[in-house]
Amino acid sequence: MTPTLVRNLRDADPSAPADSGTRARDWAEIQERMLAPLYEAVYDRLEVGPATRMLSLGCGSGLAMLVAAARGAQVTGVDSDRERLALARERLLPDDGTEGAEGAPARRARLHDDGLPAGTCADRAPYDLITVFEPIGCAAGDSEGLVPALESALPLAARGATVVLTGWGPPERCATAPVLRVAARLTESARPPRPGGWRPTLRDDLEDVAARAGLKPDGSGRVSCPFGYADPDSAVRGLLSTGLFDAAVRATDRSQVEKEVAEALHPYRRPDGTVWMPNVFRYLVCTT
């Protein structure tokens, strides 16, 4: 097995600004929970439970894995963002942060940065579920690293295993889309234009990835995932933690991006100061 299973699926541009511990924690504490309805809907549909062996590609700070582990699933996560992965270790391995030490009791979670160790196939049962819960379809090139990651992971899966891909829903069903257009406008203002800016979600984004990875679509669904924040500052921090504004930050500067995102949030502010944006996300169920 090659040492690199997953490049950072959040950023197709290697010149993106380095993620800080603060940004990783903003993701874990503010933004990640917005996708919890998506995780639950997928797990309900697939009846995830004690018999499930799940591999999570781009697992981030581990909330989706935590939900699956609470259902009894054996979970393995891979991510190249070490700061998010450190937060996943705090959630899933709170005792000492180590995994699979010789002589230790079997753990229901394993975490790996930037790859799975050689011998994974030989010394463990194959995975019957592979998930990619990092939604694609809102940034140019955001699926480029996904197909190679899937191709590397599929040899670890059982015959007929399930693979779940996720993406943003149609822009007209996502209140966050107009806010994300700030990223496109600021990115396009750069000379020359910077790669990785926002673009509208396409109807067949997930099917295209499945076809390139040699997967067979076997159903899909849509899930309501509203983005709700305590105040505009939390909303700005949460949205910037997604990485969808990285190209805009490179094209201008963080202060300008924060200012313009805050202005774009005005239509979604409630009288009590909270921010509420209804969104729809989509998932595609495939088989190997």
Describe this structure in words.
- The protein is α/β, with parallel strands linked by helices and 288 residues long.
- It has a domain at 21-171 and 201-227 and 279-287: Vaccinia Virus protein VP39 (Rossmann fold, 3-Layer(aba) Sandwich), CATH 3.40.50.150.
- It has 11 helices and 9 strands.
- It has helices at 21-31, 36-46, 63-70, 82-92, 120-123, 146-153, 177-188, 205-212, 232-240, 246-251, 254-264, and strands at 53-57, 74-79, 109-113, 127-136, 157-168, 216-224, 227-229, 275-277, 280-287.
- The strands form 2 sheets. A 7-stranded mixed beta sheet has the order 3-2-1-4-5-9-6, sandwiched between helices.
- Helix 3 (63-70) links the parallel strand 1 and strand 2.
- Helix 7 packs antiparallel against helix 11.
- The longest helix has 12 residues, at 177-188.
- The chain is globular and about 50 Å long.
- The two termini are 19 Å apart.
- Mean pLDDT is 86; it is low at 1-18 and 100-106.
- InterPro entries: Methyltransf_11, SAM-dependent_MTases_sf.
- Its EC number is 2.1.1.-.
- Residues 55-92 form the Methyltransferase type domain.
